[in-house]
Amino acid sequence: MPHNAEGGHRASVGAQNFKELLLEVSTLFINLPIDSIDEVIEDTQKKICESLGVDLSSLRQWSDRDRNLLTVSHL
Fold first, then answer.
1. 60 forms bridges with which residues in the sheet?
2. Do residues 35 and 50 touch, judged by C-beta distance below 8 A?
3. Is 25 left (phi over 0), alpha (psi -120 to 50) or beta?
4. With CB atoms counted within 10 Å of each terminal CB, which end of the chain scores lower, N or C?
5. Backbone angles phi, psi at 61, to 5 degrees
6. Structure pTM?
7. Neighbour count for residue 42 (Cβ, 10 Å)
8. pLDDT, tens digit, 9 for 90 and up, residues 5-64
9. pLDDT at site 39
10. CA distance 60 to 75
11. Helix 5-28 crosses helix 37-52 at what angle (to 10 degrees)?
12. What is the pLDDT, as a whole number, of residue 53?
């Protein structure tokens, strides 16, 4: 398969942009007031979805009642 320099450049730029997004996201949660966590998680999910070109993401956590059950915490 021939190498496409333009496609390789786009992938490199995309990877760099994603790294920058991860850095931005990780700093958002430092010293975040507890009453802002859900809103910031949802905003962050939206940014990550847009960056990856996907329509939906979900976060899950282990249930407090049943440690064998995952429940959706953010959709």
1. 72
2. no
3. alpha
4. N
5. -140, 160
6. 0.65
7. 14
8. 555 555 566 777 888 888 888 888 888 899 999 999 999 999 888 888 889 889 899 988
9. 93
10. 9
11. 180
12. 87
Task: Provide the pLDDT for residue 1.
Answer: 46
Q: Distance between CA atoms of 36 and 15, rounded to whole angstroms?
A: 29
Q: Which residue has 């760099």 as its token pair?
A: 16
Pairwise CA distance, residues 21 & 9, whole Å? 18
CA gap 70, 64 in Å, rounded: 9
C-alpha 47/C-alpha 24 separation (Å) is: 10
Distance CA 42, CA 7 (A): 31
Q: Of 68, 67, 69, 71, which is closest to residue 59 (Cα–Cα)?
A: 71
Strands (E), the chain: 59-62, 70-74
pLDDT in the model for residue 26: 84
- Find where tokens 């249930």 sit: 63
